[in-house]
Amino acid sequence: MRSIFLAGIATGQASFETEATLPQCWDDFTRSKHPESITVIHDDMGRIAAWGALAPTSTRYCYRGVAEVQLYVAPESRGHGLGARILADLIRFSETYCLWTLQAVVFPENRPSIQLFEAHGFRQVGYREKIAQMNGEWRDTLLFERRSPHIK
């Protein structure tokens, strides 16, 4: 999972992170996620080809049903529908565990991610101009969200 995250960082289009900040310990990694939401897909060699998870956006009770999507696909596995499979699993999880809103933050230049989220019912709800710096350069982000049609 760490190597896939690092490959995403290397593209400059997946995260503001510039180094792998994933904890070495599985317990530490899952502590910041809905642990049951962590989804992986293995390739034919048994290696992790894609992974995703949902992370609570806040510890406040009123936001208990809101989670951020984290989704990464290994470079050699991109373009084969793995991201769509992971995202579909995360949406199913969110419906099962009564999460009413899923959020995703995407760089405007990351067209494949934008298309993936839009294809799964996410809509752009925000544009954040110069929200943070990456390697000394200000970057914008788009905020996408999917509201559950089942949880009122």
Tell me about the biggest sheet? Answer: 6 strands, mixed
Structural class: alpha+beta
- Whole-number total of structural domains: 1
Mean pLDDT: 89
Strand content: 25-35%
CATH topology: Aminopeptidase
User: Strand order, biggest sheet?
Assistant: 1-2-3-4-6-5
Name of the CATH superfamily:
Gcn5-related N-acetyltransferase (GNAT)
Distinct helical segment count: 4
> N- to C-terminal separation?
34 Å
CATH architectural designation: 3-Layer(aba) Sandwich
Enzyme class: transferase
EC number: 2.3.1.183
Protein name: Phosphinothricin acetyltransferase
Keywords: Acyltransferase, Transferase
Structure description:
The structure is a single chain. The protein is an alpha+beta fold. Helix content is 26%, strand content 33%. It has a single domain (2-147), classed as Aminopeptidase (3-Layer(aba) Sandwich). The chain has a six-stranded mixed sheet, sandwiched between helices. β5 (123-134) and β6 (137-147) form a beta hairpin. The chain is globular, with a radius of gyration of 15 Å. This is Phosphinothricin acetyltransferase. Its EC number is 2.3.1.183.
Summary keywords:
alpha+beta, single chain, Aminopeptidase, 6 strands, globular, 4 helices, 152 residues
Briefly characterize the structure.
26% of the residues lie in helices and 33% in strands. The chain is an alpha+beta fold and 152 residues long.
